[in-house]
Amino acid sequence: MSVSVPVFTGADVEAAVSPARAVEVVRNAFVAHARGEWSMSPKVYVTNYPAGDFRAMPALGGGYALLKWITSFPGNPARGLPTVTGIVLVSDAETGELRALLDAASVTALRTGAAAVLAAEVLGRADADKAAVIGAGVNGRAAARTFLARGRAVSLWDVDSVRAAHVAEELGSSVAASREEALAADLVVTVTPGHEVLIGDGALRPGQHVSLMGADGPGKAEVADAELVRARLFCDDWEQASHGGELAHAVESGRIGREDVVHFGRVLAGEATGRESEAEITLFDSTGLAIQDLAIAVAALDAEPQGLATLAL
Ligand SMILES: NC(=O)c1ccc[n+]([C@@H]2O[C@H](COP(=O)([O-])OP(=O)(O)OC[C@H]3O[C@@H](n4cnc5c(N)ncnc54)[C@H](O)[C@@H]3O)[C@@H](O)[C@H]2O)c1
Asked: How does DSSP classify residue 42?
């Protein structure tokens, strides 16, 4: 018996799930994960360095099982190819039947933008004003788009000034005059490849929040260890963050331990405290979770878009 499975292109995913809806469902997924209702295994890396790597990310929740197979090939833009490509498979958790295929890059961008902005809103100061996104690539654009969808003005900065200007014009945001200006915002989101430390010793000021999105794999870092040590730390998942994320180096050297880092999902679930003072610097280390992808995939299915292409299997 053959089955017909709907296929969501990137445009289909974007049409089905708005950035504002993405924030809502990603928040719910963090809470469900913190409560043990949704589950996932840490992502598995299949490496082919220096070219790039493949990641397999499974999750279970909301009546579905998901597998995301996604790449990171940093040299691809120079070849005219995207850094991140892949596919999301969604199956019925009760029967195992395949329910949908979705473009992984658009699912990733939506949930990454949502997680970055959600962390900034929840962990930033209540009177936080200016927001900035550093790194205006695919996922930086998504973070800026999400800030705007939440009604907050945002400025962009990128080593590639043409790219920053182009994205700012497309979204109707502004370009920061310098990296220093972007880094001085109350709410900062960094989404660079993580090959260079953007936030050096002493760069942050009291009360700032930074969502560190770029360093999501081994050997990457966007912030100096000294800044990590003087901040209040949050992560999306300790297993992933301590091995392949921003925190990994400081964990290896013993400067940071498990007890120093709070799971962001526990804050959203009301099980742990977030920001504790106006002066605190809060840092959110995001490595990207399969449960976030599941949230977006389920939202796309729930939107019941018409006219999708199908794959006969
Ligand atoms: N945490 C997560 O959930 C998550 C999700 C998706 C991607 N990522 C990671 O985020 C990073 C960016 O991904 P992408 O898909 O947006 O890549 P991309 O190639 O589309 O964009 C990267 C951007 O960063 C800019 N850049 C490079 N070095 C910079 C620097 N020193 N300062 C400022 N800008 C700089 C580039 O010019 C480019 O515009 C990657 O490391 C990726 O693995 C993390």
From this structure: P
Mean pLDDT for the stretch of residues 236-255: 90
DSSP state of 306: S
Written in H, E and C, the secondary structure of 82-103 is CCCCEEEEEEECCCCCEEEEEE
| Ligand 1, atom nearest to 220 Cα | 41
Sequence-ordered list of residues with C-beta below 8 angstroms from that of 234, at least 6 positions apart, any chain: 119, 123, 261, 262, 263, 264, 267, 274, 282, 283, 284, 285
Q: Is 218 in the pocket of ligand 1 (CB under 6 A)?
A: no
Q: How many of the other CB atoms lie within 10 Å of CB of 273? A: 10
Q: Are 128 and 187 in contact (CB under 8 A)?
A: yes
Q: Is 220 a catalytic residue?
A: no
Amino acid, res. 180: E
Alpha carbon distance 159, 157 (integer Å):
7
| Assigned token pair, 122 | 């929840």
Q: Rounded to whole angstroms, what are the CA distances from 260 to 107, 122, 230, 231?
A: 31, 19, 11, 10
d(CA 119, CA 80): 32
User: Which residues are CB-contacts of 260 (< 8 A; sequence separation ≥ 6)?
Assistant: 233
Instruction: State pTM to two decimals.
Output: 0.96
Distance 81 CA to ligand 1 centre (A): 14
CA 117 – CA 147 distance, rounded (Å): 6
Nearest CA to ligand 1 atom 2: 288
The pLDDT value given to residue 77:
87
Lowest mean pLDDT among 29-38, 151-160, 175-184, 214-223: 214-223
Nearest to 87 by CA among 288, 240, 309, 297: 297
Q: What values do phi and psi take at 76, rounded to 5? A: -65, -40
* pLDDT tens readout for residues 161-202: 999 999 999 999 999 999 999 999 999 999 998 888 999 999
The catalytic residue among 43, 68, 130, 220 is: 68
Nearest protein Cα to ligand 1, atom 20: 137
